[in-house]
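Translate sequence into structure tokens.
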Amino acid sequence: MSNPFPRVKRILLKLSGEALMGDDPYGIDAPVLRTVANEIAAIGRLGVQLGIVVGGGNIFRGLKAGQLNIGRVAADHMGMLATVINTIALAEALRALGCEARILSAIQMESITEPFSRERAVRQLEAGAIVHFCAGTGNPFFTTDTAATIRALEIDADVLLKATKVDGVYDADPATHPEAHFFERLTHREVLERNLRVMDMTAISLAMERGLQIAVFNLRKPGNIERFIRGETVGTLITGERS
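Result follows.
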């Protein structure tokens, strides 16, 4: 199917692992997984090429590594494996809805996933598959935010969509600060200068260097991704320097 909304042709969607656990303290909540899969499947049916990066914080967070006497490198390796678990779960949920889902891993595990290469990813996207990128960058010390930014640049995505639990970027946590100011639009430099923790600073700096747009939106509001594709104002748009 051709894309009826020419604003974007190819998207990289970044989901946190926490987006899959709902109100549970950890793990994957089945109803939430199905809801997220339905939202993603609807986008695939519009003819938009879609890549996905999922975090692993619902299964393992590096912040807990110190309590377990685990070093940073080993903890990051565990986090990468957590992203593989989430990715397999989401890909299977999409396949159950009739979508073609492919999984490319930055870590070699060929009995489970395909190895990542840019050429393979672009070929699969152009063939209509929803392509999942897992295991981060394959290197410690980098977050899945940075991995998502790198993958977005590698596949020449028009925009990186960052899914969150709030409506966009605020100057404080709106859950604890009702007076927090909402930003409809920001530049990458403003995000860095204001230290707005929507993504890690490495990811924002890389996006700024390469001019990659980032849209931050509320995943819990059904239809938000489609509204963005249609050209509606959704969440916060982070772009290059304003003229």
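Note: The first strand starts at residue 10 and ends at 15.
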